[in-house]
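Training component of the fellowship. As part of building independent skills, the fellow (R.M.) carried out the full modelling exercise for a liganded target. The chosen ligand was uridine-5'-diphosphate. The inputs are recorded below so that the supervisory panel can assess the work.
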Amino acid sequence: MTTEQMARRLHEVPLAPAPLERLVELLPAEQSQRFRAIIGKAQELLDDRVVWNVNSTASGGGVAEMLQALIAYALGAEVDTRWLVIHGDPPFFALTKRLHNFLHGSPGDGGPLGPEEHSLYSAVLEDHHSDVQQRVRPGDVVLLHDPQTAGLVDVLREAGAVVIWRCHIGADQSTEHTEQAWDFLRRYVENADALVFTRAQYAPDWVAPERLQVIAPSIDPFSLKNCELDPVEVDRILRTVGLAPNGREEEPVTFPGRDGSSRTVRRHSGLTDGASEPPPADAPLVVQVSRWDRLKDMAGVMTAFTDHVAETHAQAHLLLVGPDVSGVADDPEGAEVLAECVAQWAQLPDDVRRRVHLVRVPMDDLDENAIIVNAIQRRAAVVVQKSFAEGFGLTVTEAMWKGRAVVAGAVGGIPDQIDSGVHGILVDPRDLQACGEAVCGLLADPDRARSLGDAARDRVRSQFLGDRHLSQYIKLFGQLGG
Ligand code: UDP
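Fellow's submitted model of the complex:
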């Protein structure tokens, strides 16, 4: 083995079990009984077999976050579940990023997906073959996540494993780019025992119906992003980071980090590019949290607020919240979109400008980032997600779980989560007036906002937590003779 191949051994991510009971306790009686019964079946079905998950990163991004939570619960249910991460090099990741963008229907770097790319892709995955063969035994179940791992399907099938490939990306309509990406991936994934997509529409048409499974993502109610915070804690976090008016100097806010250590929310100033004064403590907040990506249309949310909300609701403030991308070289589009928003903000009349806040949440500490986002979402009177496209829209799920009233674009996975008028309000994302009016309606009627928020939380409890997600996996393993 060459040194380079040695470097491509799989990395195993160590995880501690999470008590399944704490999840079960959140569920209504019937749902928890159902879940317990399914867990019992899983223990029987999987017995001495291992369930492997393979992806390309141990932290950062929705897939890693979801794996962390689900694997910990599976371990808590005494199902031997492991997590392996493949190693690639920059050309490999440039190629898989291209596939990622294409599958979203976006041109990305516009690069080719020809024979050279196949050789590059296959070579990296072939370097993992011997390690895979040493670890995985016949009868084990392997979940391969996203395009980065697709090239392991055949070697794992040869090793006698049940192989499931899951694609967390997708676009509503097929385009030249989605077609190209699927042409590239087809030969790697078509022998998998099952192919899993977030929505049926995301599957290419050559996937045989009996191999196609639809499994939506879920959130973990105990993660730092979603855990309960009472209004006093929310206020203290927001004051510490300069997003609520500062009272007296107070004790630092501490919280348990993912590694179990005690962590502190750092004092920040200057997280806002916009207004220098934070919103008053009693101002109703309209909030959108997302990456600085054109498809999330932060700029359109600003216009919807300034043109259709600000005058009617003179106390309301808008927070556009995204990661701190300033100076981050690997997200040039993010920095550009943020800069455009700042320029748009600078043109606003004084009285509206002081009520629009562009918030950059630091990314150097993901635990702190998560708890700040949690506090902001909880403080919102209305959460907006006016995206033009959305694979699933975890920010919507997160806001719904927090009982927030949501106004969101009727695109991608969002209508799977929200029945308009029941769990939130859906709008055409190109209709800024409709978006503004929906926000105004909720600001004017807090009782309605509360009842939509309550229904939203119930909807997440029944559909988008780990019990539903794990149950679907277990059912699938059973079907595959797993
Ligand atoms: N997010 C975050 N900090 C930010 C902006 C976003 O932690 O400053 C998180 C957000 O809470 C959500 C995820 O990034 O968990 C975004 O997932 P989503 O499915 O909404 O959209 P994507 O970014 O995958 O298109």
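The panel noted the following from the submitted structure. The longest strand covers residues 317-323. The mean pLDDT is 93.
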